Amino acid sequence: MKDICLIIPPAPFLGDQKRNCPLGILYIAAYLEACGVDVCVADLRGMQYVEICKIPKAKWYGLGATTPEYIWALDIAKHMRIAHPCKIILGGSHATAIPESIDPVFDHVVTGEGETAALAIVKGYNTGRIVRHPFINRLDDIPFPARHLLPRSSVVSDKLCMPGVLATTMMISRGCAYDCSFCSSKSMWGRRLRYRSVSNVISEIKDIIQKYNVYCFRFQDDTMTINRPWVENFCEEVKKANLNILWRVNTRIDNAELHIFERMKQAGCYEVGFGIEDPRDYVRKINNKQIDPEMSYCAIENARKAGLKTRIFLMIGLPGQDTHTAQTMIDYIERTQPDAVDVSTFVPFPGSDIYNNPMKYGFKMKDHSFSDYVFTVGLYKDELEKDFIYDHDIMTNEELKNERRKILEYISKRNLVFNR
Which of 75, 131, 229, 309 is the most buried (most CB within 10 A)? Predict the structure, then answer.
C-alpha cells in the first residue's frame, strides 16, 4: 500500500482533457518522493464517471481541483471514504479561495502551494484541518515534476502547440505582480514573482528531451517577459546549448519590446499570446487591467516584426461591457490581424475580486453549481446557448449570449480558433 496517492480528477468541460500535463500535482509528487514518501499518481482525466478500481490503495489520498473540478473531487473523495479507511486532502485554487466551505469529507484542506504542506500533513507534523505554509522562495529546491509517475499520454500531446507536433508544458515562475479584478491567481500564488534559475529550467528541458524526445514546449506562465534579464539570459543559454526547441508563451502588452521578441525568436519561440480581455480603456480600468490600450497595437506589431505568431485572449461578460462589445472586438481584430483569437466566457472564480465583492461591480451571483463555473469552452459543446451564471451590471442574459455568439461566430468563420 502506498503512503499517498495523488488523484487528478476528470475535467469533462475541457475539449481535450489530457492536452496539458498536470504540473501542480506532479510537483507535489516529486517533492514528496524526494522526501522519502511512497507516492503514486492516478490520472482520471477522460473518464465519464469515477472508476474506483483505477485508484491504487493508499493511506492518504490527495486531490487538486479548480472550481469546476471540485464536484468531481468531492465525488471521488466520497467513494474513497466508502471503499476503505483512509485520510483525504484537498488542495488547489478552489480550496485556497474558500477553504471554510469545503465539504467535511476532506480531512485536510491545503491552501496555496502544496509541496511543504502536503509533506507536513502526511508526516503528521501538521494536524489542523486548514493548512497553509509559507511560499517556497527558492523554486530550484523543488524537484522537476514527477512525470515518470504518469503514462506518456498524460505528459505529452500533439494538440498542445502545433497540430501533430508532440509538446509538453513547463513553468518558470510562480506568482503575479498584478491584481486584475477577474483573476484569482493572487490567492493561490501571491503577488510576488518568484523565478527558477535559467540553469534549472535548461536542465529540465534537457531532461524532457532525453526521456520523451520532445522538443516543443508551452510555458504556462502568465507574464513570462516581465523579467527581461531572465528572458535574455534564457534565450542565450538555449542557443548556447543548441537545444533546437520550439516554444510558445503568454505575456502582457506592456512587456513587449521588439528586441526581446527578436531574441526569443532566435531561441526558438514561435508564438506569443497577449491578454487583451477588452480593447476599450474604460472596461480595463473598471477591471484593474492597468495597461495603455494603445500599447497593444505596438506589442502585436513588435511580435509580428520579430517573426512571431500572435494570439490574443478576449473575454465576454466583464463588468462595464455593453451591447457594442462584440463589434468592438471585431474591429480590434480587423485592425491588429492576430493569427489566433481565444474568446472566454468570463466566470468570477472564487478568489477573484469580482467573486468576493460582486456588488462593487454591479454583479449579482446566481445560485449555480460550481460545475457551471467553466471559464472557457470556446466553440466546444453548447457554449453558444449556455446561460451566464450572474446578473451583469449592464447587459441582460440574452444580450450577453448575443454578444458572445457574434464574436465566436466571427472568429470561427475566419478560422482564428486553434490550439486552445
Answer: 131
| Amino acid 378: pLDDT | 53
Q: Report which of 2, 233, 234, 35 is spatially closest to residue 142, judged by C-alpha positions.
A: 35
Q: What is the residue type of 73?
A: A
Main-chain dihedrals φ then ψ at residue 62, nearest 5 degrees: -125, 130
Q: Taking the model in full, what pTM does it have?
A: 0.94
Number of residues assigned to the chain: 420
Closest among 219, 222, 216 to 156, alpha carbons compared: 216
Residue 119's nearest CA partner among 91, 86, 83 is 91
CA distances in angstroms from 408 to 312, 316, 362, 404, 414, listed in the order given: 14, 10, 25, 6, 10
For 337-383, the pLDDT digits (tens) are 999 999 999 999 999 999 999 999 999 999 888 888 887 655 555 66
CB 253 within 8 A of CB 276: yes
Contact 325, 278 (CB under 8 A): yes
**Cα(282)–Cα(271) distance, integer angstroms:** 28
Determine the residue type at 399. E
Residue matched to cell numbers 502506498:
2
- Reference 29, options 21, 37, 18, 20; nearest CA is 37
Strands 269-277 and 309-316: parallel
Helix runs in 39-184, H state only: 70-83, 93-97, 115-122
Q: How many other CB atoms are there within 10 angstroms of residue 10's CB atom?
A: 21
Nine-digit cell string for 39: 507516492
Helix (H) or strand (E) holding 271: strand 269-277
Name which of 314, 9, 22 is nearest 160 in CA terms: 22
Distance CA 110, CA 365 (A): 26
Q: Helix/strand/coil (H, E, C) string of 141-167?
A: HCCCCCHHHCCHHHCCECCCCCCCCCE
What pLDDT score was predicted for residue 420?
Answer: 47
**CA atoms of 323 and 355, how far apart (whole Å):** 23
Cell numbers standing for residue 346 = 468570463
Residues (pLDDT < 70) of the chain are: 49-50, 52-53, 376-383, 418-420
334 Cβ contact list (under 8 Å, min separation 6): none
